[in-house]
C-alpha cells in the first residue's frame, strides 16, 4: 500500500514539476494582453446588474 | 487511538499549534490590509478588493506551506512538529479560501441580474483565449476539492473509507494546488502594474515543486546480500531513533535502536501511513511523528488497550554489520530484538 502511494506521489510530482512552470509561463505570456486590471474586469457584471 | 471515539483529540501541543496558526493568519491579513491601505500603496483598490486579495493570497501561501511540510520534514527533522497537526492547517486553509470566495461573490456578483453562482460561471465564457481566460473556474474547482478534503479530514472518514481510499482521495490536494496556481496565474498575476504577488506566487509554487524533488532524491539507497539487505554498522542508529531502509517493491523498513537492541518494523503507521522511522521511542514505544500512535519495537503491536499492529522484520548481525531480511513477518509477530552492545547517546 505504501509502495503504491509513494509511486503515485512521485508520478504526480513529476507531472506537476512540468505543469506548474508551464501554467506560470502561460500566465506570464498572457500578462501583456491584460490591459485592464482585475478588479475592473470583474466589476463588469456587477455594474451591468445595477 | 482505537478504543474510544473523541471528535478531536485535543492536547496542549495541538492547542498551541492551532493558536499560533490562527494568530499568524490574523497577523497576515491585518498586515496585508495595512500595507495596501497606507498612502502610496499602489494600486489604490477598494476595501472589499483588498480584503479578498488578503484572504486569497493568505490561502495560497497556506496551501503552499501545507504541501511543503511533508518534504521539509523528510529533509530536516526540525520541521517534524509542523507535520504533527497538518490536517488542522489544511482545514484552516479551506476556511481562509472560502472567506476569499465569499468576498468575491459578495462584491462582484451580488448585484448581478442572475444568481451569484450562475453569474460567476457565465459572466466570462472566453475559454478559447489565453488573455482574459475565465480563471474563476480554476478557483471554484480548487475550492470544491479543498472543501471535500476538509470535510473528510477527520479520522472517522479515514476509518470509514479505509486508509488507501482516504489517502488516494486526499492526494487530490495536488490537483487543488495546480488549479490554485492556474487561478492566480490567469487572475491576480495579470495585473498591468508589477506587484509583490507576481514574484511571491511563482517563487512559492516553484519552491514547493523543488522541495518535493529534493526530498525524493534524498531517499536512502541500500545494497542487498543473498536476499538479506546490508544495513551497515549498528552505530549508524542513534539510541531511541531509527534509520529507514527501502526494500523490494517500494516498501521501507524502520530499524530502531532501544536500550542497545535493534528492532525492525514496517515504516508505515497503521493509522495513516505516517513515517514511523522519522519518529522516536517514547516510554519504550515507537511513536509515530504524525499523530503519536505507538508500537512496541519487538512485536509492532500498540500497547494495550490499543489494537493497531504493523509488520515486523528479522535482523541479524554479521561481521559487525546489521543485515535485514526484506520479507515481512505477520503483523504483530514478535521478533527477539538484536543485541548490538552499548547504547549510543
Describe the structure.
The complex is a heterodimer of chains A (50) and B (345). Chain A is mostly helical and 50 residues long. Chain A has one domain (2-49). Chain A is built from two helices and no strands. The longest helix of chain A has 29 residues, at 2-30. The two termini of chain B are 31 Å apart. In chain B, helix 1 (12-37) crosses helix 2, helix 2 (47-75) runs parallel beside helix 10 (197-217) and helix 4 packs antiparallel against helix 6. Chain B has helices at residues 12-37, 47-75, 80-84, 86-109, 116-122, 136-151, 155-161, 163-170, 173-185, 197-217; strands at 223-225, 228-232, 242-246, 252-258, 261-266, 280-282, 285-287, 294-295, 312-313, 315-318, 321-324, 338-339. In chain B, strand 10 and strand 11 (321-324) form a beta hairpin. The chains are: A mainly alpha (50), B alpha+beta (345).
What would the keywords be for this entry?
heterodimer, A: 50 residues, mainly alpha, 2 helices, 82% helix, elongated, B: 345 residues, alpha+beta, Rieske Iron-sulfur Protein, 2 domains, five-stranded antiparallel β-sheet, four-stranded antiparallel β-sheet, 10 helices, 12 strands, 45% helix
Amino acid at each position: 500500500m505504501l509502495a503504491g502511494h509513494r509511486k503515485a506521489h512521485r508520478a504526480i510530482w513529476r507531472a506537476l514539476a512540468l505543469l506548474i512552470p508551464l501554467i506560470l509561463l502561460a500566465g506570464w505570456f498572457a500578462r501583456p494582453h491584460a490591459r485592464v486590471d482585475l478588479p475592473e474586469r470583474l466589476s463588469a457584471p456587477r455594474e451591468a446588474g445595477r | 487511538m482505537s478504543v474510544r471515539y473523541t471528535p478531536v483529540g485535543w492536547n496542549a501541543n495541538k492547542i498551541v499549534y492551532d493558536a499560533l496558526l490562527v494568530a499568524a493568519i490574523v497577523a497576515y491579513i491585518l498586515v496585508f490590509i495595512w500595507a495596501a491601505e497606507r498612502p502610496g500603496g499602489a494600486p489604490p483598490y477598494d476595501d472589499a478588493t483588498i480584503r479578498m486579495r488578503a484572504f486569497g493570497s493568505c490561502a495560497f501561501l497556506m496551501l503552499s506551506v501545507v504541501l511543503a511540510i511533508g518534504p521539509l520534514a523528510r529533509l530536516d527533522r526540525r520541521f517534524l512538529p509542523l507535520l504533527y497537526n497538518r490536517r488542522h492547517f489544511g482545514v484552516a486553509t479551506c476556511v481562509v479560501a472560502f472567506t476569499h470566495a465569499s468576498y468575491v461573490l459578495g462584491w462582484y456578483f451580488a448585484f448581478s441580474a442572475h444568481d451569484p453562482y450562475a453569474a460567476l460561471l457565465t459572466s466570462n465564457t472566453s475559454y478559447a483565449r489565453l488573455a482574459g481566460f475565465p480563471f474563476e473556474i480554476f478557483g471554484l474547482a480548487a475550492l470544491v476539492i479543498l472543501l471535500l478534503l476538509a470535510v473528510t479530514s477527520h479520522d472517522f472518514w479515514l476509518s470509514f473509507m479505509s486508509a488507501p481510499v482516504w489517502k488516494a482521495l486526499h492526494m487530490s490536494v495536488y490537483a487543488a494546488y495546480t488549479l490554485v496556481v492556474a487561478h492566480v496565474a490567469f487572475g491576480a498575476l495579470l495585473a498591468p502594474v508589477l506587484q509583490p504577488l507576481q514574484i511571491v506566487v511563482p517563487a512559492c509554487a516553484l519552491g514547493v515543486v523543488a522541495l518535493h524533488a529534493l526530498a525524493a532524491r534524498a531517499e536512502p539507497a541500500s545494497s542487498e546480500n543473498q536476499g538479506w539487505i546490508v544495513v551497515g554498522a549498528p552505530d549508524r542508529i542513534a539510541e531511541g531513533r531509527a534509520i529507514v531502509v527501502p526494500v523490494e517493491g517500494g516498501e521501507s523498513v524502520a530499524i530502531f535502536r532501544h536500550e542497545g537492541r535493534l528492532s525492525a518494523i514496517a515504516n508505515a503507521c497503521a493509522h495513516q501511513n505516517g513515517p514511523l522511522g522519522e519518529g522516536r521511542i517514547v516510554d519504550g514505544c515507537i511513536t509515530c511523528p504524525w499523530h503519536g500512535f505507538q508500537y512496541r519495537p519487538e512485536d509492532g503491536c500498540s500497547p494495550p488497550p490499543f489494537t493497531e499492529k504493523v509488520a515486523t522484520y528479522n535482523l541479524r548481525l554479521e561481521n559487525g554489520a546489521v543485515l535485514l531480511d526484506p520479507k515481512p513477518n505477520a503483523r504483530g509477530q514478535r521478533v527477539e530484538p538484536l543485541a548490538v552492545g552499548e547504547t549510543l547517546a
